[in-house]
Amino acid sequence: MIVREADPLQHSAFFEALGGLTEGEADWHELNAGLLVLRLVDAWLTEGSQAAQVSAWGIRNLRNAVERIPATSPSRTILAGIIEIVESAVVVDVRPIAPRLMAYGRSLDYTARWALAADVFQTLLAHLHPALDPDIAFDARMRLGYCLRQEWQLEAAEAAYVEAGLIGKSAGSRKKELHAQVGLANVVIVRGNLPKADTMLSEVIAASETEGCDEVRAIALHDRAFVANGRARYEEAASLAYAALQLTTGLRERDRILNDLAISLTQLGGLESARDAFLVLAATAQEQYVRWLAMINLLEVGSLQSNEALFERYRRELVTETLPPYLRAQFHYYSAVGHRAFGRLAAAQRELDAAGALAEQHAYNQLQFEVEALATHVRQGLAVERRAARELPASLQGVAEAVSEMRALAGV
Predict the structure, then answer these.
(1) Most C-beta atoms within 10 A of its C-beta, which of 143, 306, 346, 376?
(2) CA 108, CA 118: separation in Å to the nearest integer?
(3) With b meaning 16 or more CB within 10 Å and e meaning fewer, what string describes 256-292?
(4) What pTM value is reported for the model?
């Protein structure tokens, strides 16, 4: 035995994920090694250094589990580093492994495995007092809030953001406080109160400009663009998103902004520009989640442009992907939109049935309404309303040119 018997409630996300896999699959090896390393960390931090003083055989088996992870996965190096630190440490202290636990959580976050990422961040936060390392404690709570929000655990996400704000205040960091307020505004967005979220984000934008916090201002501008999209203020949304894009240097953040900018352009009828942006993201986005979003949006663009080849290319790619529930529901819905546009009504109805089942199961109320409305149109055989491409407003001509240049640079 390497570590003590696990608490059945501890790392339940990993046990559940492993339960859905067959031993020997690539993902099984990765998650099994992650679970074993996290249990070693638990024992080391709670029982002391003796928990890591195991036989050479035990450590060798743990390392062998990590070595079965595909070499292309970043978790392999991260988990091996955690084992090395725990084995060689003279003093039990979470701080030497904290950056690696953060990196492991982020690697899971990047691949849209939010329940697993949240488990890792919670493991770290259970042992890291904010006074010991306020920067990592803040970052971990912000990422935890994001992952919980993606899993629709809104009360827990809100609590994580509140705690992050208190850490920022205690550390005297106005930037951290404002960033945590953006997180809270995002919880309000998910709950559906877009006017309140817009007010909260506007206040953050004004405060961050006064404080010289451009990074936070960019995040708040992007989220306010998302809110404007939700309120059908598409020209405003595109302008806000482009302003955020110009302030943002991180590739991951730029991808997300570009996706929302492209959604606004779609709604405005700038289909060529929207397609350019989505093609760039489908090929180059840092996060799997954003690549999936772009591919789903390309289903819609293909339908609107009567481009069946574009629609079918990305529909066939997405069929084989293991999408999280919300994106799976969106995929089925936009597949139905496309099938209907191309005259395949029976296929459209099958996709709507699948989308409706997921929307009901997970209480995606807005999507459920949209599914029911489209299903009525399909059953009644109503003609498809074609949305013609339109010239973008003069205020956005520079945005369209910038997006076209991005596609040319990406070579897609």
Answers:
(1) 143
(2) 9
(3) bbbbbbbbbbbbbbbbbbbbbbbbbbbebbbbbbbbb
(4) 0.79
Q: Is the pLDDT of residue 356 over 70?
A: yes
Name the token pair of 188.
Answer: 């309000």
Containing 244, the helix (H) or strand (E) segment is helix 234-247
Mean pLDDT of 298-311: 95
Q: Which two tokens stand for residue 91?
A: 């003093």
Alpha helices in 112-211 (DSSP H): 114-125, 134-150, 154-170, 174-191, 194-211
Handedness of CA 272, 276, 282, 283 (dihedral sign): positive
Question: What is the rounded average pLDDT of the residues 305-325?
Answer: 94
Instruction: Find tokens 């089925």 and name the residue.
Output: 332
Alpha carbons 71 and 203: distance in angstroms, whole number: 46
At 256, list the tokens. 């997300």
d(CA 291, CA 282): 5
**pLDDT range class, residue 388, cuts 50, 70, 90:** low
CA distances from 395 to 55, 69, 159, 225, 239 (A): 68, 50, 40, 16, 8
Which residue reads 């929000």 in tokens?
149
Count the neighbouring beta carbons within 10 Å of the beta carbon of residue 407: 18
Nearest to 98 by CA among 132, 66, 67, 74: 132
- Name 291's Cβ contacts closer than 8 Å, sequence gap at least 6: 281, 282, 285
The whole-number pLDDT of residue 362 equals 85
CA distances from 234 to 95, 255, 393 (A): 45, 19, 11
Return the pLDDT at 4: 34
Q: How many CB atoms lie within 10 A of CB 183?
A: 22
In this structure, the dihedral spanned by the alpha carbons of residues 121, 167, 183 and 176, taken in order and rounded to 10 degrees, is -120
